[in-house]
Amino acid sequence: MNTKLLLAGLLLGVGTLTVQAQQTTAKKPLTHDVYDSWKSVDGDSLSQDGKYLLYAVNPQEGDGVLHLQNLANKTSKQFSRGYKQAFTEDSRFAIFQIKPQYAATRQAKLKKKKPEEMPKDSLAIYQLEGGKTQYVARVKSYKLPSRNGEWLAYHLEAPLPAKPAKDTAKAKAPAAAPAAAAKGGARGATAKKDEGTELVLRHLPTGQEYRFDRVTDYLFSEKGNRLFLVKSEKDSLHKAGVFAFNTATRKSMAVDSGRVTYKNLVADKAGEQLAFVASKDSTGKDLRYFQLLHWTAKDSRAKTLADTAAKGMPAKYMVSEHAQLGFSEKGDRLFFGTFPRPTQYEKDTTKLDEDKVSLDIWTYRDPLIQPMQLKQLEREQKRSFLAVYDLKKSKMVQLATPEIPDVSLNPTRSADVALGTSNVNYLLSVGYDTPSKQDVWLIDLKDGRRKLVVKATRGNPRLSPEGKYLYWYEPQDSSWKAMGVKASTPVNLTKKLNVAFYDEQNDVPALPDDYGLTGWTKEDAHLLVNDRYDIWRLDPTGKAAAVNITDGFGRKNNLQFRYVSLNPTQRTVPADEKILLRTFDLKTKGSGFYTDHVTRAGAPQKILLEPYSYTGIRKAQDSDRLIFRRSSFQEYPDVWVTNTSFSNPEKVSNANPQQSEYLWGSVELVNWRSDDGIPLDGLLFKPENFDPKKKYPMLVYFYERNAETLHNYRSPAPSASTINIPLFVSQGYLVFVPDIVYKDGYPGESAYHSIIPGVQMLAAKGFVDEKNMAIQGQSWGGYQVAYLVTRTNLFKAAMAGAPVSNMTSAYGGIRWESGMSRQFQYERTQSRIGGTLWEKPMQYIENSPLFYAPKIETPLMMMANDNDGAVPWYQGIEMFMALRRLGKPVWLLVYNGEAHNLMQRKNRKDLSVRMSQFFDHYLKGAPEPAWMKKGVPTLVKGKEYGLELIEEPATATPAPGQQPATTTVTQPTTEK
């Protein structure tokens, strides 16, 4: 045998094996099929002793897994479909619900099962030390007391209805119910009665259980010394009522009974008092009268504190069933709501419904325009006005009124004053004057006396934690102000400081916002506020000089410091101990942590500052152990565990190990100058194994500023409106995300002068395929896409989601989700015109793409959904009709019943596929899909989707190093 041939054959075989091995391990590009399995980590929490960690890993669609980690011995346990997880206060048990299997729920829906027949949650009770798990079927909810780890209450679903015998089911069917009972008739005639189900109270250390039937609502006191519950009526011997169970004596007692409805249970901090509202009126009545009831542990029965006849109740007022009740921290006051008896319930019984006219009457005297009134109708019907009952003096005081509708309290509700605010005098200007004005009063809780203290502020005054001061940021002079509750004039706390406390990057024609509040120190000693970089300590009296507690270190080093509270129950910032500061590098976009002191001089001390994004930091209450999330473009924000010194951090979750199987990419910060010479930042995402010698197609996406998101992770997920960056990068695209700065009156031109120089800067580097670039944006970004294609032919394709195309018609429109006029948006906020349509008509026209439609040569795909509450969908129609008439290539996607951004997952998946097909066709030479080539006639709507590719000669040449894309999708056949 020829040895040379044999050797050659062996080498060929080895080479073949090597190639096969490389092909086996080669990474693959992301596709639309990966979305459902890409996971997120939710609900991560530590036990109070810091020994245990709970977190759930959930796919976008399907069954998740709850992880329980023992951080001491580094063991873990998994529970399929666990969620709503919590530790008991004593760190002895983990409690969570278990969802039904995703497939089982879907199958039940396909079989059109009734709600009560659908698969239900189970409850799991896991003993942390013993490792034993107990399961309870058909549980709708559970509750734990916040300061007692021994007790658990869980509410069961109704038992499944017994199945009737097949031969007798028809014969035993009940007679048909009468047509409609008249309103106000027998109890429950027009409203479905809540029959209540069994509630189980479990003593966790012993397993002993106490069961209560017919329960509709339940509440633990904070200390867990009592469980309060509401029972529905069974019959004349078993009336509806409120009951209290004493967990120390293990005895139950009736708090009140015999009424029809009980609502809004609230207990005081000690668990010795209970308040609620109740009504004897039938649930079928149009207007039901409620009473405020109060019970103490010393009482045998609850007492009525307030009703229509109560002393202190304003004339023709009544107790509100919708207001949230609350005790003061000391338990000496009870806050509740009242409202004037509505006249609309006085019905005209002389007319049939078919004779009544239905119309909306718009008048120039209306404080709010009709669409806003209609949107706020339910809220107004449920509006209540705050009142207080002094439990020691047995005295009711009305605090809020229709003239001063909004009344707030200090956090502990311990102060003798409340803060009242009202914009009633300024309602006519809502919709174009923003931020709107309001007047402010101090209200005495003892007698209701009011004192007007601030007139026509554009700020949002609040009471300090102890209620000694009111304080706010005033946009009109960009300063922080405070005022003692016994003083007569406010004090400007920042006027003399040579530092800006307003947003220095504000580029809309409106008063800039502030940089936020850090908080107050104990006993209202100091107010801590932020500038762009540092944190300041302010004396609320204005007597002592302001102190930069971060010593100007942030401004000197281009760092931004923000306080991180590690104790969620703490209302103030500790002044006598070290505090943690989240730190952001404004230049590199890296982040980390420093420490500092509120009252000690000196620069902050660095813990870490790295090219990552740090979020979700939480500390165990009784341990120095804490958890946080760390992310970058390549790294999902998994859960990490460390201590307060951040020494030896350890990653404990691994949500998406499959990412290593896919081509991913990288991101870098890029810089350039606008045409006006302004320095700008942007993000450039590059495919994995990027070769600067090759040329790549590029997508440009933009919305305001995004450079600060450099280290954010972006999951592959179906799109609500914008491109999914990892997907396109994985498939060989560059993605450029430029920041934009604006000049008042010229939003479109500002976008052009910011974006185009950035694109040209990248193109000059040689790796961008200048013949295959496209742009995409949604909403404000969609408008800019539509504008840019009237100014340049630089892009081969463009996709605009929910674009405003005609500012002159959009200006007079309505934002239907809120009912507001759109005028404010153009005059003062994002659209940045800075004046009315009649003051600046040419700027409205010049910034409207519709008027320059003949200049458009770029194929344009748009989305404008018919239930868009932000941008009227006719804006997309106007642009489509113009381009259609001009014979320009244009497509309009209208998802029926959908909002501004798509909400339904099936629609998000559909849009994602269509955007890929659109860009792949124009930038990679992929075949054109049927929906682009031939459309989808309404005759086959819902049956055919036009996603199949039409195999014809490509209309574009693939870029060097690129293969023509073949985005194909299996046609849905059963989904409707």
UniProtKB/TrEMBL annotation:
PANTHER family: DIPEPTIDYL PEPTIDASE 9, PROTEASE FAMILY S9B,C DIPEPTIDYL-PEPTIDASE IV-RELATED. GO terms for biological process: proteolysis. Residues 953-976 have a biased composition (Low complexity). GO terms for molecular function: aminopeptidase activity; dipeptidyl-peptidase activity; serine-type peptidase activity. Transmembrane segments: none annotated. This is Dipeptidyl aminopeptidase/acylaminoacyl peptidase. Keywords: Aminopeptidase, Hydrolase, Protease, Signal. The keyword Signal applies. Residues 952-976 are annotated as: Disordered. Residues 748-925 form the Peptidase S9 prolyl oligopeptidase catalytic domain. Residues 1-21 form the signal peptide. InterPro entries: AB_hydrolase_fold, Peptidase_S9_cat, Serine_Prot_S9B/DPPIV. It comes from the Bacteria.
